[in-house]
Amino acid sequence: MNSLLRHKGWTWGFRTTILLYFVVLIVLPILGVYYNSFSLGFGNFVESISDPIAWKSVLLTLKLAIIATLINVFLGTMIAWVLIRYQFIGKALLNSLVDLPFALPTAVGGLMILLLLGPGSLIGKAAEALGFEIVFHQPAIVIAMVFVTFPFVIRAVQPLLEELDPSEEEAAYTMGAKGTKVFWHVILPSMAPGMISGGMLAFSRALAEFGAVVLVAGNIPGRTLVSSVFIFGEVESDNPVSAAAVSVILLTLSFLILWLINMLQMRGRRS
């Protein structure tokens, strides 16, 4: 069997299949988006992204994605720390639930947020009594983004904590360093690559979130209309060029983020 797999014909077939898969499912759709965004000329592209509703949706998406990413970096690092450093009842269940947003349809996640925080829920009524609302406002969008990007930082930090040599911490304690100093100078630098790469992936994912956001945002232009919902609306309005123009912005940002992650990983391997 091994000799059969090593045969040049099989090797060529595997490589061709992988390349075709990559080209058909990834490269061609991306090129199609870029082509359609510039199909009517660069001037039309600039006009599309200069539309107040379009660029406000992009800026709002960037702002809320950054907030969601910061929350995820903080909470995700804490949860990864607890899962690695502590033993408690239900740890295995909690560890498996971390990946639930990956398996759950995002529309279901949005429905869960709507039922939990909506106007008819206990939390929603309590919020209204205090003079503010969660669902159909920006906080709901942040919560939806945090939910769908929840596992990224946790799964990026966990392996780094597992690989951290306990002797480094012991040596720091032996030299008289206190717990906070050990954390800032020994533990945090080891976790930092995972926090950064996981945060970047969470940010990139939050930029493109649609299923959970569309149910809880309210989709008011200039206030709660994010880029993904704007793109959907433009397609529904038979304006694919404008939708492609905004998509190009999100695609370019995602490419830059992935490039930065690869650069950080390469530097980490060299060091």
Automatic annotation (TrEMBL):
Subunit annotation: The complex is composed of two ATP-binding proteins (CysA), two transmembrane proteins (CysT and CysW) and a solute-binding protein (CysP).
Pfam families in the record: BPD_transp_1
Keywords, alphabetical: Cell membrane, Membrane, Molybdenum, Sulfate transport, Transmembrane, Transmembrane helix, Transport
Listed name of the protein: Molybdenum transport system permease
Gene Ontology molecular function terms on file: ABC-type sulfate transporter activity; molybdate ion transmembrane transporter activity
Transmembrane segments: 12-36, 57-82, 102-122, 134-154, 182-203, 244-264
Domain ABC transmembrane type-1 as annotated: residue spans: 58-261
Function: Part of the binding-protein-dependent transport system for molybdenum; probably responsible for the translocation of the substrate across the membrane.
PANTHER family given in the database record: SULFATE TRANSPORT SYSTEM PERMEASE PROTEIN, SULFATE TRANSPORT SYSTEM PERMEASE PROTEIN CYST
One annotated Gene Ontology cellular component of this protein: plasma membrane
Record's signal peptide: none
Subcellular location, record wording: Cell membrane; Membrane
Homology family: Belongs to the binding-protein-dependent transport system permease family. CysTW subfamily.
Membrane topology: Multi-pass membrane protein
